[in-house]
Amino acid sequence: MLPDIELAVRLQSLDDRLMAIAKEVAALPKHVAEIEKKLENHLKRLEGDKAALVGNQKERRKLESDIQGHEQKISKLKGQMMDAKTNDIYNAFQHEITFCQQEIARTEDRILELMGESEPLEKAVKAAEAELTVERRHVDAEKKAAQERSASDRAEAAKLSEQRAAVVAQMTPRVYSEYERIRKGRAGIAVAEAVAGRCSRCHIQIRHQFLQELKLGIEIKVCESCKRILYYAPPESFDDLVPASVR
After folding, report:
1. Closest of 158, 229, 246 to residue 7, by C-alpha
2. DSSP code of 241?
3. Other C-beta atoms within 10 Å of 202: how many?
4. What is the reported pLDDT for 54?
5. Is residue 62 included in any domain, yes or no?
């Protein structure tokens, strides 16, 4: 195999890993954002449950205050009834007292309804608070892991970039320029191996004469279909020539 081809294969391997690291580094913030979004939604649900509970308690306090107001009014009306001069005035006071008593009964019924509603709300709030505590710990752990992974990826990428620069320095400038041109136009993949008479990237059958010339390794050749740099790696043993299914 030509030295430039060997270097191109090595370079492709480094670029593959660098691309994988770049994707992972780019995905980590998205992952963190997703788990933080889940936490935010959880928090919103908790706030909604708390608001409902607070509203329930507020309404109950108001109704209890209304009952006190009605009871005070009844007490006042009963005192005024004692001074009524006519039956009409007396009956008017009695009618007003009856109305207040009805309002008290209606209000007490509503308070009972609210008390029944408050119990599941209180349970929901307590459960949501407990779940939120667990969720926050999970998010904090995920964020820490993501930060550590990102730092590790960046450190590995820095080492790989140094290795890449060393490989590029050994390549013929023309070959490296061609490698970069192909890589940019082929989704980052500039080199392909000829396997079983086909290009390992586009899977197109290679012409027999072309394959024989490729095996000779005299010159750099590109796939006639996908235009990637092709290389042929001779089998290291007889077993490499025999399909696993017939061994």
Report:
1. 229
2. G
3. 14
4. 93
5. yes
Please provide the distance, in angstroms rounded to a whole number, between the alpha carbons at the two ends of the chain. Answer: 28
- Tell me: the pLDDT tens digits for 48-103? 989 999 999 999 999 999 999 999 999 999 888 888 889 888 899 899 999 999 99
At 82 the pLDDT is: 85
CB atoms within 10 A of CB 171: 20
What is the number of other CB atoms lying within 10 angstroms of the CB of residue 48? 13
Distance CA(214)–CA(210), nearest Å, equals 6
What's the token pair of residue 17?
A: 């890993």
For residue 157, give the nearest of 8, 9, 15 by alpha carbon.
15
Q: How many domains does the chain have?
A: 2
Tell me the per-residue pLDDT of 126-167, one tens digit each, with 9 for 90 and over: 988 998 888 899 889 988 998 899 999 999 999 999 999 999
Give the end of a domain, one of 116, 148, 170: 170
What does the block give as tokens for 205?
A: 């059958």
Residue at token pair 């926050």: 136
